């Protein structure tokens, strides 16, 4: 798409010093406007813009940070040719004002990878690992249902350690090492968690669509009322 890409984390933007977090956010959006078209990617979004009044962090600091993000995304200065993407594992903690149309108005649930996706992840993770000819990544992918990318990375790491534990002179990692690694690992995502996230997505989309913009009252639309009994 030939767009610039700026990736950051909430921890990079938050500061313990008064007003510094707001300045960091303003600088981020100013930089994006300068190099537009641009994509801003913010990881751990729930830490940056938690729901106001939710008891997370200092209430006044949270209020200022959320208001700054709202002003940058939907304020007087139009955000042209800049797309903002946020990632979170806890979307229910994000301030609802951020989820209304014109801000983070598209909610995308990224589930666990399917078998072909897991195989591609395994190929990436083992790219620099000397594998024995008997290693079947497709078979490993088939045995790792609901495994995330981090889970698969852990399996590969365990297999390598097992090979070295058996022999410091080992030159390759074989299928037996992976089989043993699988017995010591498990998927961190359960079916219950998947169902919970899918239900959460539906609820958040419903809440976002139910938020209506404030109406505009023109002069003269409000009729004054005189003292009781007056005509």
What labels describe this entry?
single chain, 231 residues, mainly alpha, Rossmann fold, Helicase, Ruva Protein, domain 3, 2 domains, 3-stranded parallel beta sheet, 3 strands, elongated, disordered C terminus
How would you sum up this structure, described in words?
The protein has 231 residues and is mostly helical. The chain has two domains: 4-110, P-loop containing nucleotide triphosphate hydrolases (Rossmann fold, 3-Layer(aba) Sandwich); 115-183, Helicase, Ruva Protein, domain 3. It has helices at 10-13, 20-34, 45-48, 59-74, 115-125, 137-142, 149-166, 175-183, 191-210, and strands spanning 4-9, 38-43, 82-87. Strands 1-2-3 form a three-stranded parallel sheet. Helix 2 (20-34) runs parallel beside helix 4 (59-74). It is elongated. The termini are far apart. Mean pLDDT is 83; it is low at 212-231.
Please list the strands of the largest sheet in the order they lie side by side.
1-2-3
Q: Spell the H/E element sequence.
A: EHHEHHEHHHHH
Strand content: 5-15%
- Using the CA coordinates, give the radius of gyration: 25 Å
Give the class from helix and strand content and strand pairing.
mainly alpha
């Amino acid at each position: 798409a030939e767009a610039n890409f700026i990736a950051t984390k909430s921890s990079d933007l938050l500061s313990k010093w008064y007003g510094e977090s707001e300045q960091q956010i303003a600088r981020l959006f100013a930089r994006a406007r300068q190099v537009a078209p641009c994509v801003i990617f913010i990881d751990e979004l729930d830490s940056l813009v938690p729901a106001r009044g939710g008891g997370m962090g200092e209430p006044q600091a949270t209020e200022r940070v959320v208001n700054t993000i709202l002003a940058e995304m939907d304020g007087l200065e139009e955000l042209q040719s800049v797309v903002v993407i946020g990632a979170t594992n806890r979307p229910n903690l994000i301030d609802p004002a951020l989820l209304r149309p014109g801000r983070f108005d598209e909610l995308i649930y990224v589930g666990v990878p399917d078998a072909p996706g897991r195989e591609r992840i395994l190929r990436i993770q083992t790219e620099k690992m000397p594998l024995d000819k008997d290693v079947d990544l497709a078979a490993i992918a088939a045995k790792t249902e609901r495994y995330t990318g981090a889970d698969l990375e852990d399996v590969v790491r365990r297999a390598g350690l097992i090979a070295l534990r058996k022999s410091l002179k080992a030159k390759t990692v074989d299928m037996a090492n992976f089989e043993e690694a699988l017995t010591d690992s498990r998927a961190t995502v359960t079916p219950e968690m998947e169902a919970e996230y899918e239900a959460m997505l539906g609820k958040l989309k419903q809440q976002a669509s139910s938020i209506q913009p404030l109406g505009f009252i023109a002069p003269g639309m409000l009729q004054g009322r005189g003292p009781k009994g007056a005509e």
